[in-house]
Amino acid sequence: MANNLVFSFQAVFLVVYYVNVARLDPYDVGVLLLVVRIWSAACDLIAGRLVDRRSSARGRFRPYLLWATPPLLLAGTGRATGPAARTCRSRCTP
After folding, report:
1. Which helix or strand (DSSP H or E) is residue 79 part of?
2. CB 25 within 8 A of CB 94
3. Rounded Cα gap, residues 36 and 42, in angstroms
């Protein structure tokens, strides 16, 4: 549940960023997010097949949770605090 909360927050953050800061058309942002959701659905099916085929002493899915947590944490943190967030203090305007 917490993972979905983080992804939902990041999706809302990206929409606001793309529309207000990057000045992209809201229609284009919507199409982009739709394509990403379709791609995610296809990848979910592939990942489900991989998990179902794997069996270890720790279970089927637990190794993926243990190994995927650090990259997801770094990707989420890096997305929210990019180079502009570190260098652009008072001289940048939206």
Report:
1. helix 62-80
2. no
3. 10
**In whole angstroms, what is the distance from residue 54 CA to residue 35 CA?**
29
Tell me the per-residue pLDDT of 37-78, one tens digit each, with 9 for 90 and over: 899 899 999 988 988 888 888 888 888 888 888 998 888 788
Distance between CA 41 and CA 59 in Å, rounded?
24
C-alpha distance from residue 32 to each of 11, 27, 94 (Å): 12, 9, 22
| Residues 51 and 60 sit within 8 Å (Cβ to Cβ) | yes
Distance separating the N- and C-terminal Cα atoms of the chain: 33
What would the two tokens of residue 49 be?
């097949």
Q: Is the pTM of this model over 0.70?
A: no
